[in-house]
Amino acid sequence: MKLFRLSDAHSGRIWLFRIASLAAIFALFAAIAVFVRKGDALGAALLVATVPVLAIAFAWSWTGSLFSSFEWAKRYVQGAEGEHRHEWYAFKGQRVRVFLDESHRPWFALNEISFLLGLKDEKNTFRHYGPHEYGTPKSASERCLSESGLRRLIKHSAHPDAGALGTWLERDVLRMLRNRQERDAANGRKQEE
Q1: Residue 65 C-beta-side C-alpha neighbours within 13 Å
Q2: DSSP label at 141?
Q3: pTM of the full predicted structure?
Q4: Whole-angstrom Cα distance, residue 193 to residue 191?
Q5: CB pairs under 8 A, 24+ apart, for 73-82?
Q6: Would you say 169 and 178 are in contact if contact means Cβ atoms under 8 Å apart?
Q7: Residues 97, 79: contact at Cβ < 8 Å?
Q8: Which structural domain range is residue 26 located in?
Q9: Is residue 91 a contact partner of residue 165, using CB atoms and an 8 Å limit?
């Protein structure tokens, strides 16, 4: 059993606050010693009473209360639409939601891609696309384009940002998703050992 793994941010945060709580307790003991030297028994007694309370607060609720707003913001940013979770990536300041299907393949929210490439007629544009390129996957609540559907759209688009969108797709989205899958697979192998 490992006490601390650098790849686990939550574990690192817990250990950081454990160390901070230990330092705070030593600082309180030093303050108690100062009060005792000065002859202030009431101040020393109050500090002695606060040491266990602060130790519990630092070790238990401090991490939860301090980071709960960040966790809420992370869930909001990553997104949850009913049972459908998504991530988002920014392309030239515009948000693009990405839903992952059960095989961890990305599906891109069509209304955001349409906005980026100036598409008006959805039915006419995607009439020759197959269900593996265009549709509503189980992981999403709206029409989406798969990776191959988005590549096909970019290839045939005359929009000036189409080339940049293709570069963004490869460098910012797919590379990050692949790296995450490789990291998760490596962590899974380490946990099995």
Answers
A1: 7
A2: S
A3: 0.56
A4: 5
A5: 81/141, 82/141
A6: no
A7: yes
A8: 9-78
A9: yes
Structure tokens at 6: 């650098």
What is d(CA 172, CA 165) in angstroms, rounded to the nearest whole number? 10
Query: Alpha carbon 170 to chain centroid distance?
Result: 20
- What digits encode the pLDDT tens for the residues 91-129? 888 889 899 888 888 999 999 999 999 988 778 889 899
Flag whether 3 is in a domain: no
Q: What is the pLDDT of residues 13-69, one digit of tens each?
A: 667 777 777 777 787 778 888 888 888 888 778 877 776 776 666 655 445 555 555
Same domain, 89 and 74: no
Instruction: Tell me, yes or no, whether 50 and 101 share the same domain.
Output: no
Task: Among 47, 62, 78, identify where a domain stops.
Answer: 78
Give the residue from 170, 168, 48 showing the smallest Cα distance to 117.
168
Residue 12 half-sphere exposure toward CB, CA atoms < 13 A: 5
Residues 26 and 107 in one domain: no
Cβ-count burial of 71 within 10 angstroms (0-12 exposed, 13-18 middle, 19+ buried)?
Answer: exposed
In whole angstroms, give the CA distance from residue 75 to residue 12.
20
Residue 4 lies inside a defined structural domain of this protein = no
* C-beta neighbour count of 183 within 10 angstroms: 11
